Amino acid sequence: MTELLDLLAECEYSVISGDIDNVSVTDIVMDTRKLIEGCLFVCIEGAKFDGHSFVNEAVEKGARVLVVQKDIDPISDKNVTVIRVSDTRKALALISCAWFDHPAMKLTTIGVTGTKGKTTTTYLIKQMLENAGHKVGLVGTIETIIGDKHIPSLNTTPESLTLQGYFAGMVRAGIDSVVMEVSSQALMLHRTDGFVFDHAVFTNLSPDHIGENEHRDFEDYLHCKSLLFRQCRMGHFNCDDEHERDMTEKATCEITTFGLSESADIMAYNINLTNGGSYLGTEFDTRGIIDEHFRCDMPGRFTVYNALSAISVCHYMGVPADMMNDALIKARVKGRIEMIDISPDYTLMIDYAHNAMALESLLKTLKEYDPERIVTVFGCGGNRSRDRRFEMGEVSGRLSDFTIITSDNPRYEEPQAILDDIETGIKKTDGRYIKIIDRKEAIAYAIHNAQKGDVIVLAGKGHEDYQEIKGVKHPMDERVLIDEIIR
Length: 487
Prior knowledge:
- By secondary structure, the protein is α/β, with parallel strands linked by helices.
- The protein folds into three domains: 2-99, MurE/MurF, N-terminal domain (Udp-n-acetylmuramoylalanyl-d-glutamate--2,6- Diaminopimelate Ligase, Chain: A, domain 1, 3-Layer(aba) Sandwich); 103-330, UDP-N-acetylmuramoyl-L-alanine:D-glutamate ligase (3-Layer(aba) Sandwich), CATH 3.40.1190.10; 338-486, Mur ligase, C-terminal domain (Protein-Tyrosine Phosphatase, Chain A), CATH 3.90.190.20.
- The chain contains 15 helices and 26 strands.
- Helix 11 (356-367) packs parallel to helix 12 (386-399).
- The longest helix is centred in the middle third of the chain and has 16 residues, at 301-316.
């Protein structure tokens, strides 16, 4: 039980009806399925449902307090208190912080935002800090990690109530630091309001998440990303990105930069792409506020940027260079250019690239290693834009030496129809290809026909361990499939 006045301490509000003094609540709820006697119900207006439409149900199920942002019918139960705020999502964040006793204040908080590289960067930072003896939690696209507990993620950044609950769990588990992905949607919807990040990272920016129920245009997307740097103490910026100035223009934090430019506070140079047969990697030197040689067993120049962002944060957190380097060599991120070591003769990797932009970036990166062949295995999700299929087919046909078109998550569509759409795109090129509907058979074909010097990319599924068919998620982990094929 917590006093209502304590929960509202950071909120601007007015009392529409009911008492506010000496009122205690048993829980904070935003989902009518979780209503309990004596709870505080926050009415959230979403894309599909509006909590304001369920206030009567909430009262019937025992809600003691309602938090609203627009007019509702008068509540006849005089024991129910109705509080009005300008934005219930923002109020939910502030109330959640208070409900869990402000756990972020007991952690070193690190937020990472940008279009690409967020997931990899968070794992690199986590590994570096753990090498230096920190106990580190993680919140991101793949999972939330609290000690030994791994919780699969529904959103890149969870709702504020869930997020603060995770933070509280980390404090109880003895964790001292948390690194998290911060999406533009989360910033727009106030999911991270109520606390100040100790460090925040800007990786890069390109058009994404623009459309219905997301951002109205690129300017809105950029604006939301920039909000993180008005909510942190120190910002770490990729100074080579064309939108870096837009990010720093209204930032209220201390600023440090990384990149390949001479102006960067941490500059990478002498970049070398390394090929170990079963893996591709990078090595580079840095100068500026840290002079060191680094090696990372993950490919591409974008890996250098991800590594630099992690190095910048961890340098300011006092992590020695040798511990950072060790982390870069050992770091593995599930489904992000994840190397699967099954043969010294060729490279096999799993990556989450599931749109044309991501696939093109990945394949162009791999071409820099001058492989004998690039073999790309991919499909596209059902009940999604057909344009994505045409575009990905064209990209793979243009940049791969051989493409194996297969299933991804067909959902409620027929897999063959999706493969046919991809084929339409690939036929715009001279790319060689084959269609194999069953994903395991497609992967087996790639492995059994591998040639020395090949780079085989399993694209699209990444960290996912299921395949969604007709509304059912069937277990399917590509790592398991590979193991079964090899055995």
